[in-house]
Write a structure and sequence with these properties.
The chain has four helices and no strands. With about 90 residues, it is mainly alpha-helical. It has one domain (about 1-70). It is globular.
Length: about 90
């Protein structure tokens, strides 16, 4: 199920954003110092109910790319050439 993969992505993001703190991963702790869009994105991935998690990977990837460009002031589009896997 893609939704479980999305949960894993959220857990990996917490791991990376907290410098490898496994306790934060276990507690699903998203650091407060992050931009609100990043926090919202990660928290959506970590919803306990699988039906509450994002379902469409291509939309999720686009959202993450938009956040990446806006928050870090980057201009390149990493979604170029990405196709939906229907």
């Amino acid at each position: 199920m893609p939704e479980s993969d999305h949960y894993s992505l959220g857990a990996i993001m917490i791991y990376m954003l907290t410098g490898g703190n496994l306790e934060h991963v276990e507690k699903r702790y998203v650091p407060n110092k992050l931009d609100d869009r990043i926090k919202t994105f990660v928290r959506a991935l970590l919803q306990s109910d699988i039906l509450d998690r994002p379902r469409e990977a291509h939309k999720l990837f686009k959202e993450l790319d938009d956040i990446r460009r806006d928050v870090f002031n980057l201009s390149n589009d990493i979604t170029h050439g990405i196709r939906r896997a229907d």
